[in-house]
Fold this protein.
Amino acid sequence: MGREFDDEFAEFVTQSSPALLRVAFLLTSDRGEAEDLLQTALLNTSRHWGRLNDRAAAYAYVRRVLVTTHTSWRRRRRVHEVLLDQLPEHSVGESTSIDVGRALQALEQLPPRMRAVVVLRCYEGLTEAETADVLGCSLGSVKSQASRGLARLRDLLDQPSATSLATEGAR
Amino acid sequence: MNDQDLRTALHRDAELVGAPSPDLLDQLVQRRQHQRRQRAGIVSAVAAVVVIAAGIPVGSSLLARSDGGPAGPTTVEVTPSVTPEVTPTPAVTPAPTPEATPTPTPQATPTPTSTAASRTNPPSPYWARTASAR
């Protein structure tokens, strides 16, 4: 296999891929999809790696690519996704073997944009201005999406069981 | 539930994904090579379409040019040479049949009668006249 990436990029991937994979997992709620999303974002970044002057900002750059790629995927897959009445007996990948927590389950109920705002604000600890910069939207939009998303999450997490979560999400 | 509880729950659930696969870089290399092959295929397909699209008008103009140039004199040379050759052959073939049939029959039948008549009739008065005159 030829030498595709330089050492600096390979080192960056080794160091920051665990944290980026966690962000991707919070965005997708699926390990396989999270790995796919991370690989896509890293590939996009590798194409522009030589033009990245500030290597310290590489993590923020990949995180931004993660969020925008996920948003575009959700837009495309919403059209092509086929819902089945019966689930397959044997699932593919490790995603079903992971016991998804309640916060993640509640996060799944949010629309993708609101979910990205909540993840960036609450998990990554970005300010509202930084979140608006990552998402490419206005500060007011981030504020409204964050407040509505957090209120929705609190409602969902305050409910007692998972069945009530699902019914609330269906509404 | 306050914001701190929510942050803690999100961090705890994010840990559920575990560590990334150890061969992440190898997977990236494979995907990049696959993307390169895809791009090369797309570029070659687009180039083929461009060449075909450019070749159609060029080829048609070449065909049109070849139709107007050398094809003119050859048709002009061929058409007159064929038409005189065709016209004499039917003129020759019917000519012997009507000439051959009538010529021997009138010439053959009158010659013995005419020669016999000419030999018998004219000398006799001529010689008779000259002999009688002398």
Remarks:
- Residues 102 and 161 of chain A are 9 Å apart (CA to CA).
- Chain A has two domains: 1-77, 99-163.
